[in-house]
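RECORD TYPE: inverse folding
INPUT: structure tokens
STRUCTURE:
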């Protein structure tokens, strides 16, 4: 599972970063977060995920994430999470259970902006990729 986590994280960062040609803003890139369901920890680096993790969630913590996924951003016409989900599902879908859905992350009421200010975002769903150990054939 560690290889799949690393592959998905790198793909999400690549799709959201300026070097990808998409060039979403720095807030979006900084907001990419992983939630380790086994421990309840929010992390921003794959090295912080224990090797024994059985379920990991990936999501952006910005209020406009749904608009990006809906293609309403001129910088990401196909979204970020949707194409990353399709790619990881095609590569690891037989050995892992992988889902794309929308959720309201706990503790997401305040988002820190790169300018140091905060913005409220109560109850706005964001895209989430859930990766769970154990595939269809296990």
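DESIGNED SEQUENCE:
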């Amino acid at each position: 599972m560690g290889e799949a986590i690393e592959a998905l994280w790198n793909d999400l960062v690549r799709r959201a970063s300026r070097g990808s040609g998409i060039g979403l803003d720095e807030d979006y890139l900084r907001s990419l977060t992983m939630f380790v369901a086994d421990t309840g920890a929010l992390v921003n680096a794959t090295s912080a995920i224990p090797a024994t993790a059985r379920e990991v969630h990936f999501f952006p913590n910005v209020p406009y994430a749904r608009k990006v996924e809906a293609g309403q951003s001129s910088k990401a016409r196909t979204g970020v999470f949707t194409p990353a989900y399709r790619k990881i599902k095609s590569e690891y879908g037989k050995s892992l259970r992988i889902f794309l859905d929308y959720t309201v992350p706990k503790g997401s009421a305040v988002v820190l902006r790169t300018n140091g200010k905060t913005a409220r975002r109560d109850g706005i769903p964001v895209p989430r990729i859930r990766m769970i150990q154990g595939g269809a054939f296990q």
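NOTES: Helices lie at 2-16, 26-31, 65-69, 81-92.
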